[in-house]
Amino acid sequence: ATPTALMVGSGLGAENGILIRKGEAIQVMKDVDAIVLDKTGTITKGKPEVTDVLTFGDMDETRLLELAATVENNSEHPLARAVVEAARQRGVEPGKSTGFENVTGKGVKAILSDGAVGVGTASLMEELGVEIAAEPSTQKEQLEEQAKTAVYVSYAGNLIGLIGIADEVKEDSKQAISELKKLGLKTIMLTGDNEKTGKAIAQKVGIDEVIAGVLPDQKSEEIRKLQESGHMVAMVGDGINDAPALTRADVGIAIGTGTDVAIESGDIVLVKGDLPGVLRAIKLSNATFKKIK
Ligand code: ADP
Ligand code: MG
Predict the structure, then answer these.
(1) Is the ipTM beyond the 0.90 threshold?
(2) Most buried by CB count within 10 Å: which residue of 34, 104, 151, 238?
């Protein structure tokens, strides 16, 4: 490509709500045959809300939310903000805790006056030595089949509740994915969330393939595997945990409303954070580079 062609490309990009940070990206884009999309904040709005509060033993809902919010108040995770917000809506403020720890891809834990509180996955509960009976496990699966993320809450070694959290899909995700598929692209969802929730969301937006339960540091490894199997890969993501995968992909596409780290790792930035921007980038790539050949 000539510098002029790249400039024309970038100028058109700006009009289309696409910021091209690396000129080559728009040239590579026309050869991409697989698009990997992060779930939370990319396909979904990334603004989850608590929809279900289930308690076990003699725990009541408000107290459960208070305990969970006390731990989550130390976390910036979207799920954490949802839990704190739900507690506030019931008139309770997060309390005091010590020894807060963020267990990457699994959840959070901290020490309260009467013991440790954990909020997160089954794997976090296992780490805390908390037993999960058959019923809570089934209830969790039911929430996940409704496309919700469900997190366990434990207190002083016992399972005390289950919180269901829903994150709506963005209005234009489904349409954009259907058009990407029409262009012959393979679409894949990549998420740290569990497989059931991932698949339920994928079904809503028409994505065929889901890679779930991926720990943050493994996302770029999944991109590498796709590249090794012969794909030219574009990755779309918004989170800190997506940054290495955005760098690894042949084209990294950052959601402009996402984290700074993701934006800095993107070759292309979707300024308004909407998935149809990916289609505009592909069309721009085709238009720009067919003209000058
Ligand atoms: P995603 O890729 O969807 O953003 P993450 O890797 O951030 O997912 O998290 C994976 C899973 O770990 C979540 O679905 C949740 O079950 C658990 N988790 C992570 N952080 C928290 C938190 N602050 N509170 C509760 N659960 C959490
Ligand atoms: Mg995300």
Answers:
(1) yes
(2) 151
User: What contacts 54, CB < 8 A, 6 or more positions away?
Assistant: 136, 139, 161, 162, 163, 164
Structural tokens at position 214: 């991926």
pLDDT in tens, 161-196: 999 999 999 999 999 999 999 999 999 999 999 999
Atom of ligand 1 nearest to the CA of 197: 14
Q: What are the distances in angstroms from CA 205 to CA 42, 118, 202, 243, 256?
A: 12, 32, 5, 24, 21
The DSSP call for residue 96 is -
CB within 8 Å of 224: residues ≥ 6 apart: 248
Mutate to test the pocket of ligand 1, among 121, 126, 197, 218 (most ligand atoms within 8 A of CB): 121
- Residue 80 CA to ligand 1 centre (angstroms): 9
Coil vs helix vs strand at 78: helix
| Known catalytic residue at 38 | yes
Residue 239 confidence (pLDDT) above 60: yes
